[in-house]
Write a structure and sequence with these properties.
With 747 residues, this protein is mainly α. Among the domains are: 272-355, no CATH class; 377-735, no CATH class. 64% of the residues lie in helices and 1% in strands. It has 30 helices and two strands. It has helices at 2-10, 12-18, 31-39, 44-67, 95-98, 124-127, 143-151, 172-199, 214-229, 233-255, 259-285, 298-318, 323-330, 332-341, 343-355, 358-378, 383-393, 395-398, 406-419, 434-457, 465-493, 500-513, 524-541, 550-571, 585-588, 599-617, 642-670, 675-696, 703-717, 719-735; strands spanning 75-79, 102-106. Strands 1-2 form a two-stranded antiparallel sheet. It is flat. The N and C termini lie far apart (81 Å). The chain crosses the membrane at residues 260-279, 300-317, 323-340, 361-381, 387-403, 410-428, 434-456, 498-519, 548-564, 605-623, 643-666, 678-698, 710-733. InterPro entries: Alkaline_phosphatase_core_sf, GPI_EtnP_transferase_1, GPI_EtnP_transferase_1_C, Phosphodiest/P_Trfase. One of its GO terms (cellular component) is endoplasmic reticulum membrane. Pfam families: Phosphodiest, PigN.
């Protein structure tokens, strides 16, 4: 800034530009923000930074005054775009994030007013020892008109702020006139929005915003003008404020004018699409319905639907609607045509369902609805997952499965209860706990030692030394990760930075872990355990607390789930039980005869979706980016790099998904199910959930509230695509094998 002002003395263009009227100098002091994210607001570094910026502000203010020869024509506004939580994040709706300072001084600004008492819910005035000065709170949008008024330029065209009059040191007449201008400016936005809506809506369908009809607008403006002429300035100001509030309400009204109509249109599409997918599942993957002859009257049906489509298109055309409206409104037509075409199938299905006991089918539907509601609730309240997992724990008892496999059922129940603890814990990243991460690393090593011993003891004729080497390398990798986490955090604690050796080991672990599982044998449990060890070594490096235990418990439950599904198959007499110990993934892909779907497969698909959601929300939630702790990537990098950090965070989120997907791949091949039929069931589940979230999308509140509601919807919508990608990855990880060149033995 110093050099900027100095250079203006030799640069005539810059000098004359700086000496014009109505100049805005905009300064963005970013250091505090970066510092708060890195060191948290209660740290020594942050407080020193604040002190430095404070001195800097003082220096800059005197620099500007000196440049203009202390002419007293400069107004200063100091504010901030957001606050921060104690753990260094922002974006949610907590007061520590949404309250920001606003300090205004200089030309045209009122002096602080003394008061004896004032009430605010927070303790800032007390902490800052400013209790005897009047505090004037405004909305952030109000700062734009305040700046415009101070330098004497028109209010910004699309500003929705109200001029905070208490800040201005000016006559009552000036304030009343300014307020009147502010009201006219916001009313103008309202009028533009209204005329735009009126033009694109048929006159008999248009419902105007009643409180601000044309006559009401004229009435308001006349009254306000009269008050100003009669010098009743306070009345004029309060009337203008009422008008501003009404205009803002009207703006919102016209902005969301078509919401109900479009929302219903999308809902109808959703319901039709879900019905169609259910029909496809029943038609192609089950033996519920008899083979039905093709329908003859399809031409009449086709033309009637085409006619409906044309009417809708014509209706939108005369209203000159945007092209997106055509997509929303025309989509239900082909979707419902596809459903209605299957009418004979629906009739046959209805007859079949009626022949069943009503109680049974109602019970089944009720359980389905309850399951989906639990999934929807878990997006908002993680503890709902705990309830779901406790119900899962009782599943063997409810279905009498425990009778035929007591040990497996007992371990299943135990692991469900263990996993149910995680959603009750606070979101990851608030409180680091490195000893727990180290303990998890050691526990993983202990488990892999047992696994190694059982592998050596088993009379497995397929075992060879190369496989043991791979297993050993993976154990070494886990041990190294544990060491790196421990030494990195010690080093950072002592302010010595990230040791280069640790950084190299971390990146090498990341690369090698994606290859090592492909070197292990493709026997079911060996390959899955190998995948777990590889992912654990990466996950440990990205962990800062209790979440390190999460993939371990989750994959334990996944191993038992594979065995439990075998028991379920036998229980329902669907197929013979393959020997899991010698089951090989690489031969499983050759299975050509997939069996038809059974009602129990709906439960299988539901378990999968539930475990995927648990993998996502088990240790945090979608807001975990908001509560994202940079400390979790310190083993890889300590320089602030948003994209690299974001990438590593996504990797951390994806690891539990990969574990669940690999287990589901195992369940699929061992129960002889085609992945297509299961994905169709998942599609139905995710569509029903998406319809819930569609109606829960918000457009008000904090970034976090709005962002979360949208991302929930997007997440569920992309669930099927995401699961297909995960399934592809799982197939690659489970079936592919890289052969190392073997040394030939010479005799």
């Amino acid at each position: 800034i110093q050099s900027f002002f100095n250079s203006s003395r030799s640069n005539q263009t810059l000098f004359s530009a700086l000496n014009e009227e109505k100049v805005v100098l905009f300064l963005h002091l970013l250091g505090i923000d970066t510092n708060g994210h890195a060191h948290r607001p209660n740290s020594r570094e942050y407080k020193e930074n604040i002190k430095k910026v404070d001195e800097g502000v003082k220096e800059i203010a005197s620099m500007i005054d000196n440049f203009y020869g202390n002419d007293g024509k400069t107004a200063f506004v100091l504010t901030s775009d957001h606050g921060m939580t104690d753990w260094g994040s922002h974006g949610a709706g907590h007061p520590s994030e949404t309250l920001t300072p606003l300090i205004v001084w200089g030309a045209g600004v009122n002096y602080p007013q003394k008061v004896t008492s004032q009430f605010f819910e927070d303790n800032f005035l007390k902490e800052w020892k400013l209790e005897n000065l009047k505090r004037l709170d405004v909305n952030q949008a109000d700062i734009a008109p305040l700046m415009a008024s101070l330098i004497g330029v028109p209010f910004p065209l699309n500003s929705v702020g109200t001029l905070p009059l208490e800040y201005l040191n000016n006559s009552a007449h000036f304030k009343a006139e300014s307020m009147f201008t502010n009201a006219v400016q916001i009313l103008e936005q309202f009028k533009v929005k209204m005329s735009h809506k009126k033009e694109t809506t048929l006159s008999f369908l248009f419902t105007p915003f009643k409180p601000l009809s044309d006559s009401e607008q004229i009435n308001f403006l006349k009254k306000a003008r009269l008050y100003i002429q009669q010098q009743k300035y306070d009345e004029a100001v309060s009337l203008c404020k009422t008008l501003i509030n009404l205009a803002l309400e009207g703006l919102s009204y016209y902005h969301t004018y078509d919401r109900l109509f479009l929302g219903l249109s999308i809902a109808v599409s959703f319901v039709g699409w879900t019905a169609y997918v259910i029909l496809v599942i029943i038609k192609t993957h089950t033996n519920l319905t008899k083979t039905i002859q093709a329908n003859k009257e399809s031409t009449v049906l086709f033309y009637s639907f085409a006619f409906v489509g044309m009417i809708i298109a014509f209706f939108l055309l005369i209203q000159t609607c945007p092209w997106t409206y055509y997509v929303y409104c025309l989509l239900p037509v082909p979707v419902w045509y596809a459903v209605v075409r299957e009418l004979p199938l629906i009739q046959d299905l209805a007859a079949n369902l009626l022949s069943l006991r009503i109680g049974q089918s109602m019970g089944f539907l009720l359980v389905c609805a309850l399951g989906i509601e639990i999934l929807v609730f878990s997006f908002f309240y993680r503890s709902t997952l705990t309830i779901g997992l406790l119900v899962f724990a009782g599943w063997p008892a409810i279905t009498q499965l425990w009778v035929q496999a007591k040990t497996t059922a007992l371990i299943w129940t135990l692991l469900c209860v263990l996993l149910a603890i995680f959603p009750l814990m606070p979101v990851v990243g608030r409180e680091p706990n490195i000893p727990l991460v180290i303990a998890t690393g050691l526990l993983t090593l202990l488990i892999s030692c047992f696994s190694l011993m059982s592998l050596c003891n088993s009379k497995n004729k397929y075992r060879n030394n190369e496989d043991l080497k791979v297993h050993f390398y993976q154990m070494l990798s886990v041990a190294l990760s544990t060491y790196v986490v421990s030494s990195t955090h010690d080093s950072l604690k002592n302010k010595q930075g990230l040791p280069v050796l640790n950084q190299i080991i971390s990146w090498m672990t990341l690369v090698s872990s994606s290859v090592l599982p492909l070197l292990s044998p493709t026997f079911l449990f060996q390959r899955l355990f190998s995948i777990l060890l590889s992912l654990m070594s990466i996950y440990l490096l990205l962990s800062t607390g209790y979440e390190a235990l999460f993939p371990l418990v989750l994959s334990g439950l996944m191993f038992v789930w594979i065995s439990m599904e075998q028991e379920a198959l036998q229980h329902y007499g669907l197929s013979l039980k393959p020997k899991l110990a010698v089951f090989n993934f690489s031969y499983a892909t050759d299975i050509t005869q997939f069996r038809q779907l059974h009602l129990d497969d709906v439960r299988r698909a539901f378990f999968f979706v539930f475990f995927i959601v648990t993998a996502f929300f088990g240790t945090g939630n979608i807001a975990s980016v908001n509560s994202f702790d940079p400390a979790s990537v310190y083993c890889f990098l300590t320089v602030f790099s948003p994209f690299m950090m974001g990438g590593l965070l996504v990797l951390k989120v994806v690891i539990p998904f990969v574990l669940v997907s690999c287990a589901f791949e195992a369940v699929q091949v061992t129960t002889q199910l085609s992945s297509k039929s299961l994905f169709l069931i998942v599609l139905v589940l995710s569509d029903i959930m998406a319809l819930h979230f569609f109606f829960l999308v918000k457009d008000y509140g904090s970034w976090l509230d709005i962002g979360t509601s949208i991302s929930h919807y997007v997440l569920v919508m992309s669930l099927t695509i995401f699961m297909m990608l995960m399934n592809g990855l799982a197939q690659l990880l489970t079936t592919q094998r890289l052969e190392l060149p073997r040394r030939t033995k010479h005799h």
